[in-house]
Amino acid sequence: MPNASGYAAHEPKAALAPFDFERREPGEHDVAIDIKFCGICHSDIHQGRDEWFAGIFPMVPGHEIAGIVTAVGSGVTKYKVGDHVGIGCFVDSCRKCYECTTGADNYCTVAPVMTYNGKDHEGQPTYGGYSDKIVVDENYVLRIPENLPLDGAAPLLCAGITLYSPLKHWNAGPGKKVAIVGLGGLGHMGVKLGHALGAEVTVLSQSLKKQDDGKRLGADHFYATSDPATFEKLKGSFDLIVNTVSAADDWNRLMGLLKTDGAMVVVGAPENAVPVHAFSLIPGRKTLAGSMIGSIAETQEMLDFCGEKNIVSDTETVAMKDVNEAYERVLKSDVRYRFVIDLATLKN
Ligand code: NAP
Ligand code: ZN
Ligand code: ZN
What we know:
The chain is α/β, with parallel strands linked by helices. The protein has two domains: 187 residues, Medium-chain alcohol dehydrogenases, catalytic domain (Quinone Oxidoreductase, Chain A, domain 1), CATH 3.90.180; 131 residues, NAD(P)-binding Rossmann-like Domain (Rossmann fold, 3-Layer(aba) Sandwich), CATH 3.40.50.720. The protein is globular. The site of one zinc ion has 5 residues, from loops.
């Protein structure tokens, strides 16, 4: 019996439309959550259009979930009714593999359960946050600091952690020059977090249109990648580049902007392969790496850091029925800087 409502793509590339479905009753270790806000991540668009792999349909997207606890199972110790909580990109994992037991559960190799477009341990499809409620095991629920508004905090659950994790792993901080490529949902969190960690932050955007915003968000420098002079001027400049671009781009010329021993970390996940020349890496002993969200523990660390520093996403709130128009604007890089769906509008 359906007991939850949301919006789903009923087949690949279809516009999102209302969809009723069933959430499990909270078990002993489960937390039931009323979803208040859910961010729109570019990954929702890639997956709804089968750009990465054949998806599971109907697909209820959404993995930047912020809400309030409405019920807890008898064995739950971490959360109580009324708590402000978040759910990110995964809602369970095998809990036994090397990754799960060494604080890297986001890289679980055995049985990761993605928040949507996945299957749970019973083989049932998972449905995401473009919906009114969700039930998740307490070990995969995050605590949102009380001083952060839920709308601005929602995008921290994917965009925030996806930038925080590589910035920390590659030691962004005082004395380090960091470039963020692409000023969208992920990129703007990279600027805020890189700045808060004490790094010197440069934005590399397609044009200078977002320059004033970039500086306001905390960037020290801002350059256009459409201007060939940018690549001359910044040659050999950066310790770390975090590349958030959602489309196939020229990685070779970006690698040229790294110092010796510098690293470019790819977090943007374009549909098409990107060719890389060996000589973009060999001279200068450069690293080309990838990074995927962050562990549950690191996500909590990031949320606590954002609570202390009062960091949230810059959001534009949209009604559920306007989600398809919001998708089109994301595709045009016309988002300042994260759309967040207000679930109170679900039935409007
Ligand atoms: P977004 O808000 O659309 O931002 C992407 C930005 O990339 C745009 O704002 C634009 O910035 C730039 N861009 C877009 N098209 C471009 C092109 N053709 N050439 C050069 N630059 C272009 O998307 P998002 O939600 O931040 O997600 C970005 C990517 O990260 C997506 O592929 C998404 O699937 C992926 N992602 C990965 C992870 C992970 O764990 N690794 C997590 C979440 C998302 P400018 O206007 O400044 O140029
Ligand atoms: Zn995401
Ligand atoms: Zn595992």
